[in-house]
Amino acid sequence: SIDRASINRATLARLHERELAEFARRNPRSAEAYAAADHLFGRVPMTWMNKKAGGFPLYFESARGSRISDIDGHEYLDFALGDTGAMAGHSPQAVLDAVSRRIDTVGGITTMMPTVDAEWVGAELSRRFGMDVWSFSLTATDANRWAIRLVRALTGRSKILFHSYSYHGSVDESLIVVGPDGEGMSRPGNVGSPVDVTLTSRVAEINDLPGLERQLKHGDVAAVLIEPALTNIGIVLPEPGYHAAVRELTRRYGALLIIDETHTFSAGSGGATRAWGLEPDIVVIGKAIADGVPSGAYGLSQELAERALARDDLDLIDMGGVGGTLAGSPLSIAAMRATLQHVLTDDAFEGMIARATTFAAGIEAVIVEHDLPWAVAQLGARVEYRFARPYPTTGTASAESADADLEDYLHLALANRGILLTPFHNMALMAPTTTDDDVARHLAVFAEIVGELVA
Ligand code: PMP
């Protein structure tokens, strides 16, 4: 439960006004660019860029490693890292070299031919995530969509089961939440869904095994598609034993298990799948594996792959609904290889996770010092705090712990002091380039702005 009273709302409103004024003062060029963007839907290149605590977004100029600069000439310490797309740090040299070789030295951004690098990437993903064979996409959304089509075709069942308040990209089937009656309903705000989502999907809260079993018992679930921990409604970690029970239930009721590692890749170089010993039938991943060069992938067992390839009623070659022209392009594959081989290596994760541990401990110390009803969670190289204590254990509880005014104030006060968090919640991600000093600087600022709030 949230104790909103613990924060004096008048103080919060006063500090928020002060930070809004400072944001406007610091960023005249960004304000002007936003005011002039008359030909963009919502004034931004992508409508989610309107998630802005300061009234207008900061306009991007340049980035390297963990540093990012805006058009007003401010440098930021970047813990948003493109919402994981840039988890490897911005533009590391190895990725630049591979991409510029592809674009410039030898040429060929996209063709209709495979490159030999693709097998290297497939083998490396197998080493890390344990799946036998891989196929590529340009986004994690598409990897999820194609995996969903495959499991429907292979099982002959119609429904996909998700965690409530999960996010797997703009996948039609996934926009479902647990409603007040405990059954699925369309996620609030779902834009133009093709059919009633309850026709295609089922839903259960993470950590609710009886709820999951009740849904699986219908016998119409082709696959359970989940993140190992929720990461897009704040982090929500699985309770001990949860994943073993999910695997047992999916097997008992004949459903496949798809694990989406797009964000939980922060748990280690083989994601949570390796870190926690999960046994999925399909793994989906995207974004960070090519350091933000458009890419995604799904891996499946040899057995599933053979069953799909043996089916002559499934058109996997042409227009059967699985694939895209630019998927697996020479450019995308080159960026994946460079990122996995040279940047997001097994060794790199050790430092990233150590820094996240320090980050989380620092947040917890500030929470305890002021006796705030907030709590912190860590998922490898990723840290999150929510405005509830104890920490929420379901998606719905995590959604309810959001506090828009408080969040906007903290994000704005951090930005005005040169620090960026992921805009949608209080999430910080460590890149291989994030240093101990960076973590210390964030904690000093966090302690200062929280201290002012509770004074
Ligand atoms: N899966 C997960 C777990 C994600 O967090 C996201 C995006 N935040 C996606 C899939 C979709 O990725 P993309 O927008 O690159 O398709």
Automatic annotation (TrEMBL):
Keyword Cytoplasm: no
Cofactor: pyridoxal 5'-phosphate
Keywords for the protein's UniProt record, in alphabetical order: Aminotransferase, Pyridoxal phosphate, Transferase
UniProt xrefs under InterPro entries: Aminotrans_3 (IPR005814), PyrdxlP-dep_Trfase (IPR015424), PyrdxlP-dep_Trfase_major (IPR015421), PyrdxlP-dep_Trfase_small (IPR015422)
One example GO MF annotation: pyridoxal phosphate binding
Source species, domain of life: Bacteria
Family: Belongs to the class-III pyridoxal-phosphate-dependent aminotransferase family.
Name under which the protein is recorded: Aminotransferase class III-fold pyridoxal phosphate-dependent enzyme
Organism: Lacisediminihabitans changchengi
